[in-house]
Amino acid sequence: MTEPASPGAAWLDSLAHQSLQLGRILLLNGSDSEQVHLQVHRFAEAFGAEAHLLVTYEAVLVTLTAGSDIRTKIGSRVPGMGVGMSAIAAINRLVEDASSGRIRLDEAQAAIDKIEHQTPAYPRWLVAAALGVTAACLGRLFGGDWLACLGAGLAGAAGTWARLELGRRHVNPVLVVFVVALMSGTVGGIVTRFGISSTPALALVAPAMILVPGVPLINGFLDMISNHVTVGVSRLGFAGVVVLAIAFGIFCATWITGVGIPVASPTLTIGVPQDALFSALAAGGFALLFNVPARMAWACAICGLASHTLRTLLFHYGIDLIPGTLAGSLVVGVLAQGYARYFRAPAVALAFPGVVAMVPGAYAFRAVFGTLQIAEATASTATLAETLSLSATVALMVGAIAVGVAAPALLFPPRQPVR
What is the DSSP letter of 419? Predict the structure, then answer.
């Protein structure tokens, strides 16, 4: 321990403030509830206090006890949860330094303030370009032709730029995804109208895929698995609202462009070598969007390649998408644990970009379109059955991703915390 057990009110106030700030940064940047609890507990313990934490979807409350002294603090409202893996990695390094006695409490405060106000690791133009490539790659992974991929790429880049700009202006995140889905869907649809494309719908769907809240979806299931039910339900509820907003944006884009999205559609795949290339490129784009440190970006690409390519290979051998998704996610979970030890970084920073391309956003959008037809009483019996099947597929695939990513960490926990 680097501090005495009961050094006074001022010290405990400072430690409570820092513990709360640390937990809030983790929550804001995409950590699941279990990681927030773990790191806040370790940080307080490093300085001789015991932390009791309450994590909600909107705020963090922490109570510290040191000897006979008790301090309770509650953080301000969390305006919205993003994904910032650089911040999570920096917090984990700070906690490890505190646990090892390499940093004093006053030095920790300066370090936390620096992490909280750090600028993104990559410029906006680079992130927009990378996500344009990602959208084009997703279009190809879904079986789109080259014209549809071109439309998806242009729409993805334009939509990402608008998304980052609106986010910088603190526009409501649900409104942001609706506007961006509408804009990118319109751009993608217009591009495909200039030529003959056999898969024009993918020019609308693929750019929307990069808007799908994969991290809240996966974190929601992880929270449920870890018995943080309230937060898990909140994350899943928010993710569901975002998916609906994206679907409505695409629906408006179909009305503007005249490009329809069928509810019933066959599962299209490409060859395994192409799948490996485009999966790696797509994961690399998400790594930039998630602000993954540059030294780890190549590992994210390998995780994305391994997961999606394995699923495609299994599909070619007759294995259904749901068990294939579970198998791909398990591979990512194992790789992420290994890379976490190598980089001394959180496994989540490597796992999320590797599995986001498998999040069933396209299935969710088609399920919403089917639900709209049911609500309008225009759906056939076949459409009703397809909509129910799509909804079940979405739930099972997201669950398979969460279980696959979490299982290696639960079955083979690290002998010492990574940083």
Answer: -
Q: Are residues 193 and 308 in the same domain?
A: yes
Same domain, 57 and 161: no
Residue 76 structure tokens:
């301000």
335-359 in b/e form (b: 16+ CB < 10 A) is bbbebbeebebbbbbbbbbbbbbbb
Give yes or no for a contact between 182 and 252, defined as CB atoms under 8 angstroms apart: yes
List, for residues 206-263, the tens digit of each pLDDT value. Answer: 999 899 887 888 888 888 888 899 889 988 899 889 988 998 999 899 889 888 788 7
Residues 91 and 236 in one domain: no
Domain count, the chain: 2
Q: What is the pLDDT of residue 156?
A: 94
- Asked, for residue 417, whether it belongs to a domain, the answer is no
* Continuous segment of H or E residues that includes residue 74: strand 69-74
Starting from the edge strand earliest in sequence, which strands make up the sheet with 50-55, in order? 50-55, 60-66, 69-74
DSSP helix/strand/coil, 30: coil
How many whole angstroms separate alpha carbon 236 and alpha carbon 254? 27
CA-based nearest residue to 210, from 266, 133, 140: 133
**pTM for this one?**
0.86
pLDDT of residue 197: 82
Token pair 């001394």 in the structure block, residue: 344
Contact 355, 307 (CB under 8 A): yes
Q: Residue 50: which H helix or E strand, with range?
A: strand 50-55
pLDDT at 354: 85
> What token pair was written down for 205?
């769907």
pLDDT score, position 80: 64
Work out the angle between the directed axes of helices 294-316 and 348-355 (0-180°, nearest 10): 40
Indicate the Cα dihedral angle 360, 397, 230, 24, nearest 10°.
-60
pLDDT value of residue 412? 64
End-to-end CA distance of the chain: 19
pLDDT of residue 278: 94
Q: What is the rounded distance in angstroms from the CA atom of residue 392 to the CA atom of residue 9?
A: 54
**What pLDDT sits at residue 3?**
47
Q: Could you say which residues of the chain have pLDDT below 50?
A: 1-6, 415-419
- Whether 343 and 359 map to the same domain: the answer is yes
Within this chain, do residues 61 and 149 fall inside the same structural domain, yes or no? no
Strand, coil or helix: what is 118?
Answer: coil
Q: What is the pLDDT of residue 220?
A: 86
